[in-house]
Amino acid sequence: MTTGILQAPVVGQASSGELHRAIDWRGAFWVASGVPALVLFSIGGIAGTAGKVAFLVWIVSMLMGFIQAFTYAEIAGLFPSKSGGASVYGAAAWVRYSKLIAPLSVWCNWIAWSPVLSLGCSIAAAYILNALAPVPGADNAAVLAWVQSHASSITAESPRVVEWLAANSGKTAADGVAALLSADAISAVTPAVRSWTLHAGTLGPVSFSLNAAFFIGALLMLLTFAIQHRGILGTANVQKYLGLIVIIPMLIVGIVPIITGQIDWSNYTPLAPLKAAYAPEMGSWDIGGWTLVLGGMFIAAWSTYAFETAICYTSEFKNPKTDTVRAILYSGVLCLVLFSLVPFAFQGVLGLEGMLATPIVDGSGVAEAMGKMVSSSGWVTNLFVMLMIFALLLSIMTAMAGSSRTLYQGSYDGWLPKYLSHVNEHGAPTRAMWTDLIVNLGVLAIACADATSFFFILAVSNVGYIIFNFLNLNAGWIHRVDNGDVVRPWRAPTLLLGLGVLFAYVNAVFLGAGAKVWNPNALWAGLIAAALIVPVFWFRHYVQDRGKFPDHMLADLGLTTADLSKRRAGALPYVALIVGAAIVLASNWFFQLPA
After folding, report:
1. Of 26-40, 241-255, 461-475, 552-566, which gets the smallest average pLDDT?
2. How far apart are CA 222 and CA 398, in angstroms?
3. Where are the coiled-coil regions (predicted)?
4. Does the pLDDT value for residue 267 go beyond 80?
5. According to CATH, where is 1.20.1740.10 located in the chain?
6. Percentage helix, strand, coil for the chain under 3-state DSSP, each rounded to 5
7. Contact, 35 vs 331, CB < 8 A?
8. pLDDT tens string 538-557
9. pTM
10. 4 forms bridges with which residues in the sheet?
11. Does the domain spanning 25-133+202-590 belong to CATH 1.10.3980.10?
12. Burial of 571 (0-12, 13-18, 19+ CB in 10 A)
């Protein structure tokens, strides 16, 4: 095996130690085709916070993401020899104004994308466990037999019945006995693997568990690594076929309920938030209601904006001048369709009560629910569960491909430790992939513990993602000011570039107001995670590189490190940062959860 430190790739050539120019925009499209499956991660959670407004949250968020993509398409075209995505291209704009803000963009993009591996594997593992060792329902024959044989184990005078009556007003002792017997029976006949764990505990605000789901998820992660090891062309070829067998069923889920008349239009009205999260009672558009909806907008962004990963592969495009913009815009159209149709149909069929059911909120029953929306046949439902497992594997592969290249390019450009600038003979950044894998095995143990821990990881990850988006949407106009004379293969309409800047501050509101919906410590934990770039960058820049950036960092712009002292935008980038931080803090103070 021949490996080495990467040199700037040359179009039409690929030598050992370089990313290979092996795909066109279609390859990137298929690699990014895993993004629509991200709807499976939080469709239940958003329904639990936004209620009947949930379908609108997805549509508005997706439209924002599509408009923002025009900014990313322009700045990506400036860097035909870089990989790693918008964060890397945006970092080149910020480096003139702060050595620290530039790597923050790259770091926050990585902490946003990398957890897709662990979160996706945890959901896929839950689907597999449900298929192989399902929890029996109350009407299961084994459950009914257990109840009959243990009918005398609970009496009306039992302390458990008294406690149950206190929590369920209006019910009788007989109701309590029946409910408790059924619960005991389900627990008794549930396969032992569902409760087995090698080790479990707590870690600050979250739990962790080395349970069966963890080990299944770890195997799925290793499978993904093995596929990615073959390089970007092999990855794109695998994902093309996976994408076809996933995208088509998701389109079916979005269209069939509308055609067959399963949509109950009353499930969209009244268009008001919930009175409290995960409770079916309708609320009003007061501060508490807006906070819950903004929480939905906050977490939806993690999925709907994510198709920007299609431009992670610029240095692997055969013709980056045309492939870059086509990759992101066609991927955006696909996501616009699926992120609008699937949540709309999901809500129209299930309704508020159905969306707030525990298996939907925690994600374990989403695939089964989608199958039942298409057909009442059991084999169709089972088929859909299998297809949704493929969908999650697709999203995991998309995440590893993108996040590993972010680590690689960040290392090659001088932001992250040098050891990450390494590829195998297939052009795969294997050291970055191993880093992703090891970090995510730890995160997987948290994600597999419970729904609270899962959404904490998701929220912390999204804090990084919103920071990255804020920096890169502003990078669009900074590049226009500082690098206006550099040829752009594609230039975004100025109106859309301006809307992107406006959305940067709207996203700041989502961050300040919405993160607390998922966990009271999510915002602060996310900011701490973002701040970890300080020691990482300090080690690379001041210890490994002795305070100098690599000469090739700005080569695509025709600049050298000596040109970094020319700051045409003046104080405006600093003003943008201060205003953004002020909006986050003000939103966090003003918006409060319902009492």
Report:
1. 552-566
2. 14
3. none
4. yes
5. 25-133+202-590
6. 70, 5, 25
7. yes
8. 999 999 998 888 877 777 67
9. 0.88
10. 423
11. no
12. exposed
